[in-house]
Design brief:
- InterPro entries: SAM-dependent_MTases_sf (IPR029063).
- With 340 residues, the protein is of the alpha+beta class.
- The chain has a domain of 121 residues.
- 29% of the residues lie in helices and 14% in strands.
- The strands form 4 sheets. The chain has a 4-stranded mixed sheet with strand order 5-6-8-7, with helices on both faces.
- β5, α2 and β6 form a beta-alpha-beta unit.
- It binds zinc ion.
- The site of zinc ion has 5 residues, from loops.
Length: 340
């Protein structure tokens, strides 16, 4: 089965220590290589990297086993890649591949994609498509835009998703492309949602007790200032992102009452609940079983996140992929490829 090697390589490209810690808890037997740049031999002039020039190393430091471990990849692997989107995001400086540090991370991930039979690739809608067309000539690439709201989740996170299939794979003849399948199978973006963002405010009493977020008096100075400005300027709104100054950026719920797109600095204040949304709840909004209710809905055990700081949980949710979207693309990839 081509999915057998799904989680061989958990390369964490942003060296986010909390993310490595989470991988350790989720996949206790798998190797975790925290520094993706160490997975390749650096050619002389690193400013002129192209993915094909990069030679993969045989072993690298593994954070799970605290030693050098073998890197095992094969054509049967299915990779899931979301290399840094800040190069293309409207919330960043839009440097694109002019930012060489960021480009290197994309180059190494693309080197793995070149080797993989199947890879799933996620980025923001403004991602530079020509980069993949140029570097994955041996693969056919199908692209679609997806958003959790199409799955009934009141969370705005519009992303471009791709399935990259190696030309040597046997593929079922399918008359519909990935984006046509998404159109047929998923709700349109403008459909009225049954739930609003408040469905994510599900933290247990124990969770709330460990965080002093019960009133605006517990907020930091700039957050208090932003909250007062939001309340004065946008009194009909229910959710304010206190990391933004409303005079510059009005980060509030969408017009259908969905969560605004989470960023790594998002600090969401609910007027209805009179408190901040917890990091666990932000992860829940992406489909992770981080709260009891979210885990029950997914019929899995909740992940224990008690040893993570609020800031690191928020940061991970801002960097995270939406699981219903990832699951949809994975399912479509399974449908496309003929089993051996
Ligand atoms: Zn290992």
């Amino acid at each position: 089965m081509f999915l057998s090697g799904l989680i061989r390589l958990a390369a964490q490209v942003e060296k986010n220590r909390a993310c490595v810690k989470l991988c350790k808890e989720l996949e206790p037997s798998q190797c975790i290589f925290p520094d993706i740049l160490k997975l390749v031999e650096t050619p002389g002039d690193s400013d002129n990297w192209t993915p094909s020039k990069l030679k993969l190393v045989k072993e690298a430091y593994c954070a799970q086993h605290n030693k050098m471990c073998k890197i095992e990849t094969s054509k049967d692997d299915c990779g899931l890649l979301g290399a840094p989107c800040i190069l293309f995001s409207k919330y960043g400086k839009r440097e694109g591949f002019q930012n060489l540090e960021g480009k290197k991370l994309h180059d190494v991930s693309t080197r793995f994609q070149q080797r993989s039979g199947v890879s799933l690739h996620e980025n923001v809608p403004d991602f530079d498509e020509s980069y993949l067309t140029k570097n994955l000539k041996s693969h056919s690439i199908q692209r679609t835009l997806l958003d959790p709201r199409q799955f009934g989740h009141p969370n705005r996170r519009l992303r471009s998703w791709r399935i990259c299939l190696h030309n040597k794979l046997k593929v079922w003849k399918c008359d519909l492309s990935l984006s046509e399948l998404a159109d047929v199978l998923l709700a349109p973006l403008d459909v009225k949602l049954a739930l609003d963002h408040s469905c994510y405010l599900t933290a247990s009493r124990a969770d709330l007790m460990t965080h002093s977020v019960f009133s605006d008096k517990d907020l930091q100075g700039s957050q208090q200032k932003h909250l007062a400005l939001f309340q004065a300027k946008l009194p009909d709104k229910q959710l304010y992102d206190l990391s933004a100054n409303p005079n510059k950026r009005r980060r509030v719920e969408t017009k259908e009452s969905a969560l605004p797109c989470l960023t790594t600095s998002s600090t969401l204040w609910s007027e209805k609940a009179g408190r901040l949304m917890l990091g666990k709840e932000q992860l829940h909004s992406l489909g992770y079983p981080s709260t009891n209710i979210g885990a029950q809905a997914a019929r899995v055990d909740p992940v224990n996140l008690d040893n993570f700081t609020e800031a690191s949980l928020r940061r991970m949710s801002g960097n995270g992929m939406s699981l219903p979207c990832a699951g949809f693309v994975l399912l479509m990839a399974v449908l496309f490829v003929e089993d051996k």
